[in-house]
Every structure is written in structure tokens, then in C-alpha cells.
Write a structure and sequence with these properties.
Length: 170
Amino acid sequence: LLPDINTKEPIVSMTNKGISKAVLVTCLHSEVYEKMKTMYYEHPAVTGEIIGVYQPSHEQVQQTKEEMHNKKAWAEIYLLSLTDVLVTSAWSTFGYVAQGLGGLKPWILIRSENMTMPDPPCRRALSMDPCFHNPPTFYCHGKRDVDEVLGSHVRYCEDMSSGLKLVDEA
């Protein structure tokens, strides 16, 4: 989604081809933002694009009972819903709400297991519908598997194998 950087050239030597991309990072911590911002600030993109990296806030800890913290969180979710491309981490509440609000099918970064990077590290969501992490079990007509009961419009989530989400099979 983002171009590689040219580590052999200083940022000032590249000519802007009139194309720019803005990257919005929403996270409680600033480490991801700082690394991306520094990377594109110090080195030009190989495509000549100007890449700007922005993080509206980084509160360090979640403060669910603080009104200002909640307002900042809502503003960031809303901004994410307006993006052209959404990349979200697995199990991300911000990502789930933003994808539903914006009607976006995000790229989902898959969680590593045993400190091993998954291959592939991300995958495209099946739909804009967020994952229902703890769906109720279905026992009305005997113990049947969810696949045979729910049909073609429900699938297991990309980021949580026990979760369910709606999909459009049209």
C-alpha cells in the first residue's frame, strides 16, 4: 500500500511528482507512528511520492471513564472511517467500528503466534461487517455445526477463528 523508501538518496534530492499520501496512525502508543514518520521524513519514496504520517493523539493508556479521552477516540475512529484504504490490527475495536461506519473492507494485520510472523502477515477482510467475537451457540435443532446452520451469508472471522461475521456472497 505504501511505496518503499530509497535509502541511497537524501529526501531533498527527490522531485515531487505531485502525488502525496497521508497515513493516519491511531494507537495508544507513539512508537509505530514515530518509526513510520522518521522513515519517510529521512528517505524519499522510490516512487517520488510525498508520504506524510500523522497521529492525532497517543494517550499511552486507555482511560474509558475520561470524557476527553473518549472524544479523542471517537474522532480518530471517525477519521479512520473516511480513509481510502484501512489497515487494522486483529481484534481492533477502532478498526471494527471504522470499517462498519465507512463501509470499508480493511486489510487485517494477523496476530503473531509464538513470536512468529504469520505468512501472509495480513489479509483482506471478507466484508465491512465487524467480527462478532463471542457468537451464541446454536442448539435449537440439535447440535449442528455453524456452517450448515447459517448458510452462505455468515463466515468465520479472519482474525478470530471462533468469531462470526456477515458476508455478501452475491
